[in-house]
Amino acid sequence: MRRRRLAPLLAVSVTATLAPVLATSTATAAPAATPSTVSTSAAKGTLDRYVKQKPQWKRCDADAPAEFECATVKVPLDYRVPGGKQIDLAISRLKSTAPDKRHGVLFSNPGGPGGQGLYMPLGMQDRLPESARQKYDLIGFDPRGVGLSSPVSCDLEPDEENWLRPYKEETFDRHVAWARDVAAKCKEKAGDTLPHITTRNAARDMDLLRAILGEKKISYVGYSYGTYLGAVYTQLFPGRADRFVLDSAIDPARAWRGMVQWWAEGAEPAFDRWTEWAAERSEKYGLGDTPKEVGRTFWDLVAQADEKPIEVEGWPNTGDDIRSGMRAAVFSPEYATEGLVELKKAAAGEPASAKKLAAFTGSEGAGTAGTAAELPSDNMTASMLAVICGDNSAAWSRDPESYRRDAIEDKGRYPLFGDFASSIKPCAFWDRSVEPATEVNNKVGSLVVQNEWDSQTPLPSGQALHATLKGSKMVTVLGGEGHGVYPNGNACTDGTVTDYLLTGKLPAKDVTCRATADSNAEARKNQKRDVLPGSPLPQRAPDRF
Fold first, then answer.
1. For residues 457 and 439, what is the distance between their CA atoms, to the nearest angstrom?
2. Is 483 a catalytic residue?
3. One of 96, 219, 224, 393 is an active-site residue; which one?
4. Active site residue 224
5. Which residue in the list 103, 196, 466, 483 is annotated as catalytic?
6. How far is Cα of residue 351 from the mean position of the Cα atoms in its chain?
């Protein structure tokens, strides 16, 4: 795939400040002001020690700006046992550029699960308007288990990390064995840690960090998976959430198997849109005069590649590769059309551009730019599996045959990607979740932002989160392409989000914007590039949120 000034300490006791961190043992947390569910004085004393930590800020690295500071704090592995094992949480900050205008802290998350967010303030600094930079200290962090925050590993080989596998009768038993082996390797390698690498605990970490920084509340910008993390925070700590922007949203009710399956459901209308677009430009691209003919051109190439992979500059593309790549590509019709033109050339034995085809087939690889060399190579996959399997184990059947049935049925209903989404995953063999899934249902104010055409979180997913967060307003970008909206140069969307961050006032009603050629071009540019340190936008890999 690939100047913060510390605020004065709160004028309340440390124990009262941190109590909300622990008031979260049930599916729906009590309000922030309620007593902690851990009531012993010994436990509270342990928590006092956490919140009294003084981060030792230092320059993040020699290549980073001097004002970009990093530190490491300790957090409990298991918040139910705060006196037990501790893990590291790597954090960063860029101070407000105008302390006299400072409002508070702005946390951020780039997506994933497993996405590193430590360097995200640099990207936010580059792209946020100066008015917003004056308002906030930008706070980044690698979520627990990720990057420099006590990274987890399952010792997986590269081929074992491929967790989206197409259904075929002749390979299904091997895929079941693979899924079982991956779950077993993860348990053997990190069985005492992985059960606690969850979204609920990541939200608790955010609140502990809030207390350490001496802040009454936090503001937040989260992308993709980060919208779910933000929503869980608003549920667990409603009194601590200030201005929350949730961009390219997860439906909490479908975390996590249902969200993976939504990739397949969302691909079909996007595919139909693409065939219409390409047919209208048949004279230029030659893929067919009607949507039906364009679709036939695609499926004929898939069939040809099933018989013999189509090579582009030595890179073989199977029919499954093409289907999987097209799922992400069709959310930009121009993108998908240019890629299919090159694939058609290659299939006919003509020279083709691997660069143009890469976004379509994924043949350039995703990369993990910005990953520290000492991190486990499978860290992103291991931490991702911990979250999608461990957040809600009840969402994953324990019967391998049920995955076979679902994959067959969904390949028929959603031929582009249905079997990839529904077939067996390591989650089928994961240990039971240590806590129930979080039921998100609150009236905390927030702003949900969503493109109409999104490769990872389809529009209905954003609408579902908006309905769940009853105090939210929603910005919908009609014709908007790509994954991640803010900021993209669109005056309507950027203006609405920035106004909210500056004033804390949500729009009076939901906002509908229209994509521009420039904003969609920005989305395509973002989708092409690997994730770089400081990118404020979500992970670009098509197998992550």
1. 19
2. yes
3. 224
4. yes
5. 483
6. 36
